[in-house]
Amino acid sequence: MFIDIAKIKLKAGKGGDGAVAWRREKYEPAGGPAGGDGGRGGNVIVMTDSGLHTLMDFRYKREYKAENGQKGMNKLKFGRDGEDIILKVPVGTLIRDANTKGVIYDLKENNMSVTVCKGGKGGLGNARFKTSTRQAPAFAQAGNIGEEKEVILELKLLADVGLVGFPNVGKSTLLSIVTSATPKIANYHFTTLTPNLGVVKIGEGESFVIADIPGLIEGASEGIGLGDEFLKHVERTGILIHVLDISGSEYRDPVEDFYKINEELVKYNEKLGEKKQIIFANKMDMPGAEENLKKLKEKLGEKYEIIEGSCATTKNLDKLMKLTYNSLKEVDYKNHETYDEEHVEEITREEGIKVFKDNGEYFVEGPYIDKLIRSTNFDDYDSLKYFQENLRKNKVVEKLEKLGAEDGCSVFIGGYEFEFFE
């Protein structure tokens, strides 16, 4: 099954907490602090794999979490870092922010890897807080929370050439002949329900990737049929081969078909109208083809290169592929333009402190405050003093005073209630 979009939740590992521990060696009954640092939380990494062609793996499992860092240990031993989690995706996958829909990463190359969620930094053990005036700190630092994001994975196939045209004009047959691809082929509409890829080999070291884009009918850009699901795969191609049933075997006018498909391309994305197109007039072996070919050349012959032939007899297919290969050399498309809005900045956890007044009460919040609270031993004088020093250093007390806080009033800090004193 072809899956080209998936919404998933990612969570990096939490950093391990620093340890509160003491030296207990023989003959040193009054040993100093010996708590080690916590390990880093595991990252969530997304990596491309050229062997994958669908996002099927993400259809059923929607949440991925990296391992937490290990807590620090006695004897100044560091905790082990959390194991990273690596998610494999096809080349051509976009990673979007689920809320803004903006593109965070565009993975266009094989073995390209990005860290989407960074693991939390490990906390410092109590040995790190020993000073000349604080010989026995009974507190340690908590590890940072890992980043957490909800993202949309969207696959846009990377192909050099795209086959476009109405259903049943011969696109799948053409693909099966010029490549080793084996799409399902039958004489009815919507035979092809998923994009198919194949490699065309012209000669030694000369080849290109071609994709059959299914589901294009009138109204596709507005959601009729399946075209709106697959039009995005046209965006990355360098050249389009527009396949027409030149015989008009289904009582359609080939020239009108050409204009209708192009209208859908432009409605979906006006930049698609700028792509180079080669017209392949298929089914020349059938009655009525010669007359329709003459009309086609009169209408479009000056603007487009037209190759007449037949998938049934393979007439001029080699000529079509060679022309396509030579035309690709003249087109600058290897950056695989996404045609999406500008990339949004990668979302990171803000390490800020928010001080505000609400209904006459004072609040101090933020990721840094949460970490400070988790790092504080409120039963230990040195730890409480360190907590207060950090609040002053980060101008929390100064901001509370500006908001009108006075001695004796309540201040809620990270869910705890404190009495304010200057």
UniProtKB/TrEMBL annotation:
Record-annotated OBG-type G domain positions: 159-329
Organism the protein comes from: Peptoniphilus porci
Entry keyword set: Cytoplasm, GTP-binding, Hydrolase, Magnesium, Metal-binding, Nucleotide-binding
Top EC class of this enzyme: hydrolase
A Gene Ontology cellular-component term: cytoplasm
CDD domains: Obg
Stretches assigned to the OCT domain: 345-422
Biological-process GO terms, alphabetical: ribosome biogenesis
Protein name: GTPase Obg
Chain positions recorded as Mg(2+) binding sites: S172, T192
InterPro entries membership: G_OBG, GTP-bd, GTP-bd_Obg/CgtA, GTP-bd_prot_GTP1/OBG_C_sf, GTP1-OBG_CS, GTP1_OBG_dom, GTP1_OBG_dom_sf, OBG_GTPase
Predominant subcellular localization, coarse grouping: cytoplasm
Subunit structure and binding partners: Monomer.
UniProt similarity note: Belongs to the TRAFAC class OBG-HflX-like GTPase superfamily. OBG GTPase family.
